[in-house]
């Protein structure tokens, strides 16, 4: 039975593609993915491209499984590292095909850690890049922010739980407005932006944020 690979392609700059991902993509008969991952991998795609959207992904992944059953080599490109925020995509691929291998990539979260000197093992990572109920994740975010012992790295959910809404939630729950907060947008891509400030300032921000945003809430000094 053929394997369908879910390959992380990095945060956006093609230079972050791993050698393994490049090889699998270049050898694939069919390469599927959402728009940005396909753009990132475009220089290595030689087979058929399949653009996934939130509306067509189940249908197109079912077709991908049919191609795998016919002996085609298939790769699904995932933004960053699929193990950081791509669980739903992995589950959808596994729902249509039993033999799936996840190929690690470089996550934008790792880029944040590298640039700031943050130790991932001492931080809390939360992703809201998911459908359905995020209330348990919100409670975990609030608890960690109130405790203040760990840096918190959070991926907001477009478009109903973006950085300003996240900040307001924490303020409403009693997190001090002076807590340092950083928003990273479009890391490694053209138009990359880093905004450092306080939680209170972030909550008052009325500008638009990219759907490729990361919030870093620094631990308290206590």
Strand portion: 15-25%
Largest sheet: 5 strands, parallel
Measured as a percent range, the helix fraction is 25-40%
Just name the CATH architecture of the largest domain. Answer: 2-Layer Sandwich
Question: What general outline do the C-alpha atoms trace?
Answer: elongated
Q: What is the CATH level 1 assignment of the largest domain?
A: Alpha Beta
Radius of gyration: 19 Å
What is the number of independent domains? 2
CATH topology-level name of the largest domain = Methyltransferase, Cobalt-precorrin-4 Transmethylase, Domain 2
Q: What's the rounded overall pLDDT mean?
A: 97
Helical stretch tally:
9
Tally of extended strands? 10
Our measurement of the CA-to-CA distance between the termini, rounded to an integer number of angstroms, reads 55 Å
CATH superfamily (homologous) name of the largest domain: Tetrapyrrole methylase, C-terminal domain
Low-confidence stretches: none
Describe the protein in words.
By secondary structure, the chain is α/β, with parallel strands linked by helices. The protein has two domains: 4-106, Cobalt-precorrin-4 Transmethylase, domain 1; 109-217, Methyltransferase, Cobalt-precorrin-4 Transmethylase, Domain 2 (2-Layer Sandwich), CATH 3.30.950. 36% of the residues lie in helices and 22% in strands. The chain has nine helices and ten strands. It has helices at 19-27, 35-41, 57-69, 82-85, 87-96, 108-116, 135-147, 163-172, 199-203; strands at 4-8, 30-33, 48-51, 74-78, 100-103, 123-127, 151-155, 180-185, 193-198, 213-217. The strands form two sheets. It has a five-stranded parallel beta sheet, sandwiched between helices. A five-stranded mixed beta sheet has the order 6-7-10-8-9, with helices on both faces. The longest helix has 13 residues, at 57-69. The N and C termini lie far apart (55 Å). The mean pLDDT is 97.
């Amino acid at each position: 039975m053929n394997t369908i690979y879910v390959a992380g392609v990095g945060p956006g700059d093609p230079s972050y593609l791993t050698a393994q991902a490049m090889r699998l993509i270049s050898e694939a008969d069919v390469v599927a993915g959402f728009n940005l991952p396909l753009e990132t991998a475009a220089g290595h795609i030689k087979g058929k491209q399949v653009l996934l959207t939130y509306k067509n992904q189940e249908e197109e992944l079912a077709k991908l499984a049919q191609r795998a059953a016919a002996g085609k080599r298939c790769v699904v490109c995932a933004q960053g590292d699929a193990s950081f925020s791509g669980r739903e995509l992995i589950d959808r691929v596994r729902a249509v095909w039993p033999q799936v291998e996840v190929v690690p990539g470089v996550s934008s979260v790792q880029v944040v850690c590298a640039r700031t000197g943050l130790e991932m093992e001492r931080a809390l990572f939360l992703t809201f890049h998911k459908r359905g109920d995020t209330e348990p994740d919100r409670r975990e975010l609030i608890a960690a922010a109130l405790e203040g012992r760990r840096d918190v790295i959070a991926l907001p959910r477009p478009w109903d739980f973006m950085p300003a809404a996240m900040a307001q939630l924490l303020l409403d729950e009693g997190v001090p407005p002076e807590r340092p907060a950083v928003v990273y947008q479009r890391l490694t891509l053209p138009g990359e932006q880093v905004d450092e400030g306080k939680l209170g300032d972030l909550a008052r921000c009325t500008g638009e944020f990219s759907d490729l945003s990361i919030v870093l809430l620094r631990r308290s000094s206590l």
